[in-house]
Amino acid sequence: MSANDAFRITVLPGDGIGHEVMAPCIAVLEAAARRIGGFSLRFDEHQAGALAYRDTGVALPKSALDAARRADAILLGAMGWPEVRYPDGTEIGPQLDLRFELGLYAGVRPVRTLPNMPAVLADPRARQLDFVVIRESTEGLFASRGKGVVEEDREARDTMVITRKVCEPLFDFAFALARSRKARGAPGAVTCVDKANVFASLAFFRKIFDERAALNTDIRAEHAYVDATALYMVRRPWEFDVLVTENMFGDILSDLGAGLMGGMGFAPSADIGDENAVFQPCHGSAPDIFGQGKANPTAMILSGAMMLEWLGERHGREEAVRAGGIVREAVDAAYGAGLKPYEIGGGDGTGAVTDAVMQALARIG
What we know:
Strand order of the largest sheet: 2-1-3-12-11-4-5-10-8-9
GO molecular function: 3-isopropylmalate dehydrogenase activity; magnesium ion binding; NAD binding
Low-confidence stretches: none
Structural class: alpha/beta
Keywords: Amino-acid biosynthesis, Branched-chain amino acid biosynthesis, Leucine biosynthesis, Magnesium, Manganese, Metal-binding, NAD, Oxidoreductase
CATH superfamily of the largest domain: Isopropylmalate Dehydrogenase
Pfam families: Iso_dh
Protein name: 3-isopropylmalate dehydrogenase
Cofactor: Mg(2+); Mn(2+)
Strand content: 15-25%
Order of helices and strands: EHEHHEHEEEEHEHEHEHEEHHH
Shape: globular
Distance between the termini: 28 Å
CATH architecture of the largest domain: 3-Layer(aba) Sandwich
Helix content: 40-55%
Largest sheet: 10 strands, mixed
């Protein structure tokens, strides 16, 4: 893109609180872009999700998918609704369809604690966590989505798929991320999380990891079994830097990481491929609080910050990287000043969180 072009952002608010957290995110991103200058954002909203499926029979319309393909980045709120399911009983998940359709193999799940959060672990080191779980997002057990077999109501079978084609760029992505984090003071280590002692597919996963590690000798390469990793994430999570793992394992460990931060409302994420990327909070559509003004937009706002930084790095636009940085600074400042959403026992709803972040953003020089 040229210096005068706007970044084209396809917006998929989705279901439930997806709409409620998307508007604050867009407001914050636009304010950050104005504050830094040198670039702009053009948002194009499309409907997709469980309620779209209920009303039209289509969860991800072709128009929305085509817009996502053309966009510079995709912002997604939350998708799914408990009572709306496919005929086989599985949930409506266009966010998963996007990962497969766009080849978004690297699911990036930062685990970074915010100031003044209630203690989740007793050790004071757990109050300053900063590591990343990278979840392979297109293969593993999720390769069986929609393809599982149930035989005569007596046996069910899903198949794990691990390919070199996906693993090589996944591990290269993990080492590159660790390298960029090392430049900012992180340890510079990538841990391959697997169950290579039991499954041939995950022994293959580890084999490819070791091959890529041999090409990235400036970064420390480590191994850990997934069960031990779950233990370490509770006992000593501050020792991690970048974890890379299979799809299902990453799904579980990233939620554990969200718990270490205080809840799903604080957990941003990205699903990144070679050409496209989706940025979304880790939480769901939360029907239990939908329409009550209680939704915590923090994870959505932080996902937007990740989007700005990715856009800036991808297109060589330092001003976009800086804008993402000041959004994160504003979130930290708002929580440092005592912000407490309902999620952690406070009384600050969607509007109060948004106002606090916007006010903090206005004070950043």
